[in-house]
Design a protein that fits this description.
It is a single chain. By secondary structure, this protein is mostly helical. The chain has two domains: 106 residues, no CATH class; 239 residues, no CATH class. Helix content is 68%, strand content 3%. It has 17 helices and three strands. A three-stranded mixed β-sheet has the order 1-3-2, with helices on both faces. Helix 13 packs antiparallel against helix 14.
Length: 351
């Protein structure tokens, strides 16, 4: 029986590869069928608990793995087939649970297809959108600080931000029911310090469906990052799509700090793309921005600089490989593809 369980990883991988060829099937029967039931159930079960159950689960799992190695490493050389079988059983079980509880969302159709949008844009369209985004962000920055040279400080606690975040989703769900987000299950990660050294702002636990936010990074981006992780919870696994939906939710929120967070966050992506395509235009657009916004950007850069370490590229390369293994061919670069979604959404619906 154990051998069958260990070898089950092979047909599982084959089935997943076949399902990846049928995104319409995944969208209809998993992402809009089974997954919402699983996701809501887990959020009801774990959402009310004030700490991250998933982080506790990972800690216990790590201890059990360490215990297994201590007591079974001797079999690696004496009975290698036994050792390999035991390891494959764990891998097979984890692989199955990951895809059942969340991972199949990686193979759903691209969001621009489901929303009926294009996925390309001209430099002129990018510049037009970026100019409007600068104007909106400038207005919000001045509204919140009263001085165009002061950076925005979010006055809310982490728990207040978590509680307020769902109202933006309620707004966009009126037009796109698939963006509905209830109940909440958003928490500060117990591993915030390790996450910081690894260079991450948050993550979704696929086994408990808890959205985790790096609680050390309390700056203007915190509301947007919260909305980003919640986008993963409702079934959008691709990072670019979670950024796009997080932007829609943050800017649909009635609170101006959420609106500023979403706009300023995405403005950086657009400016980076303008710089790549037209450096001279980038300098002109940068000159239109309030100094307070630039100070917010500098604050974020200074935070990450304090925790920079030689291991961070290793973690980033590992995550990059993980993304590529789950149908995100561009790896971490897919984050920048959100600009295409933003520009085309603007073309279709207006900013």
């Amino acid at each position: 029986m154990k051998t069958i369980l260990a070898l089950s990883i092979i047909p599982q991988v084959i089935v997943i590869k076949l399902l990846a060829l049928a995104p319409g099937f995944i969208e209809r029967y998993y992402s809009n069928g089974l997954y919402p039931v699983i996701s809501k159930t887990y959020r009801y079960v774990f959402g009310w608990i004030p700490f991250s159950v998933g982080d506790v689960f990972y800690t216990l799992a790590g201890l059990l793995i360490l215990r297994f190695l201590v007591f079974n490493i001797k079999y690696l050389f004496r009975k290698p087939l036994y050792f390999i079988r035991e390891v494959l059983i764990v891998i097979s079980f984890t692989y199955f649970m990951f895809h059942l509880f969340w991972g199949l969302n990686y193979y759903r159709p691209s969001i621009h297809e489901t929303l009926g949008m294009g996925n390309d844009y001209t430099t002129e369209e990018l510049v037009e959108f970026t100019e409007k985004l600068i104007s909106r962000t400038n207005t919000l920055q001045l509204q919140l600080t009263g001085n165009d040279s002061l950076m925005v400080k979010v006055p809310y606690s982490r728990k207040e931000i978590y509680r307020m975040s769902s109202s933006g989703y309620a707004g966009i769900a009126k037009h796109t029911p698939g963006f509905s987000y209830t109940p909440e299950s958003i928490k500060s990660s117990l591993f915030s310090l390790p996450l910081t050294y690894m260079g991450y702002s948050g993550y979704l636990n696929p086994f408990t469906n808890e959205a985790q936010v790096n609680s050390l990074q309390v700056d203007y981006r915190y509301p947007m990052i919260t909305c980003h992780e919640e986008a993963h919870q409702i079934g959008y696994s691709a990072e670019n799509e979670a950024n796009f939906i997080g932007f829609l939710a943050a800017t649909a929120n009635k609170d101006p700090y959420f609106q500023y967070s979403g706009n300023a966050y995405m403005l950086r992506y657009c400016l980076n793309e303008v710089y790549r395509r037209a450096p001279d235009t980038f300098e002109r657009l940068k000159g239109q921005m309030h100094k307070g916004i630039l100070k917010n950007y500098a604050e974020v850069a200074a935070f990450w600089d304090r925790y920079e370490n030689i291991a961070e590229p290793v973690f980033k390369n590992t995550f990059n490989a993980y993304l590529k293994a789950n149908s995100q061919a561009g790896g971490i670069k897919t984050y920048s593809y959100v600009v295409a979604l933003l520009v085309n959404y603007h073309k279709k619906n207006g900013i």
